Amino acid sequence: MTHAVREGFSVAELRVALSRLDRADTPATWLGQLVHQGMDQLPMPGRGATLQRWQALCAVAEHNLSLAKLYEGHTDALAVMVELAPSATLVAGATWGLWAAEAPDGRAVVEVTGSGGAQLNGAKRWCSGAGQLSHGLLTAWWPDGRGPQLVRVDMHGPGVGTSHTGWHAVGMAASASGDVAFDGAVVECVGADGAYLERHGFWHGGAGIAACWHGGAVALALALKRALLQAPCASHNAFRLAALGKVGVALQSTAALLRETARWIDEYPTADASAMALRVRLAAEGSARLVLDEVGRALGAAPFCRDADFAQMAADLPVFVRQSHAERDFAALGERLVSPGGPSWAL
Questions:
Q1: Strand runs (DSSP E) across the chain, as ranges?
Q2: CATH 2.40.110.10 at 96-189, yes or no
Q3: What integer is the mean pLDDT of 204-210?
């Protein structure tokens, strides 16, 4: 069954659009083309169609993870602005980055100017698409330490400089992640001080990342399935079949949890979704790691060396899932589970 993302836009149509992207272009160019086609207009999370939103994220991730990184950030930025500044005017055709990571060696500081506007100084690290996207939505801090304050900025405006010298990973290199330096850049505040973290959609967006990780893992699992279909009588297929069985259990479990989480968010859109988001993110990370290991063991070195798409996905996925906070997230989930009235886990 094809699930509609919005009127006139289905996941099947999105997959067709993805298949038509020119492989020679960059993920930022691909994002611009999807935006031009209106395929960035996903349902808002928590309004009855969260699963359809995540199906789109999964489909893009299955195609290319660097594109998924930019597409997820862009669509999340649009959702944040609808939530915090619904009356704000957006530039038609703009491509947005959402940058909220806080690095110890970089901080963006926002100040009110004499004319009543705002300007930004300092640095922002880990900005996917920096230098290639048209606009940025990022967390900044006031000079007295209050924050985070969400601001939006024209990336082509004065006082904005980008650098990619700090990125050395092969995986996710095409996401063009880098550092942005601000020197009196004109910005517009979005929402109140602290509103970015306090809004209901914060954890909804965090959970959506799991759909991207899941999509990357699905792409690798499908490579194993294709290998089995192409060589049904190979003597080593018993080992590959066992690997596919393990992969199938992991991915089906994660898919079921993604569907359950999406349904819960739609049923309780204003409830604390932190435990649900942490759970599905950790599950998706775990299944992605299992898929990477099992598919690699089953197929050997050949696809890593001779299949460009497989090799890229296998390099990108480990880097992308490190957006998870690993044991810190497990501890954060444990804190929520130990509270009175937590889940019993019984059927």
A1: 4-6, 9-10, 96-99, 108-112, 118-127, 135-140, 149-154, 160-163, 178-189
A2: yes
A3: 98
Residue ranges of alpha helices (H) inside the chain are 11-19, 27-36, 50-63, 65-84, 195-198, 201-230, 237-267, 274-299, 302-306, 308-321, 327-337
Token reading at 195: 């509103």
Q: What's the average model confidence in pLDDT over 315-342?
A: 92
| Tokens found for residue 323 | 């957006």
AA identity, residue 156: H
Q: What is the C-alpha separation between 226 and 247, in angstroms, rounded?
A: 14
C-alpha distances (whole Å) from 153 to each of 48, 189, 309, 338, 344 are: 31, 9, 34, 41, 46
User: What's the CATH architecture for 199-337?
Assistant: Up-down Bundle (1.20)
What count of other Cβ atoms lies within 10 Å of the Cβ of residue 103?
A: 12
Which pLDDT value is given to residue 9? 79
Compute the distance between CA of residue 97 and CA of residue 84 in angstroms, rounded to an integer. Answer: 16
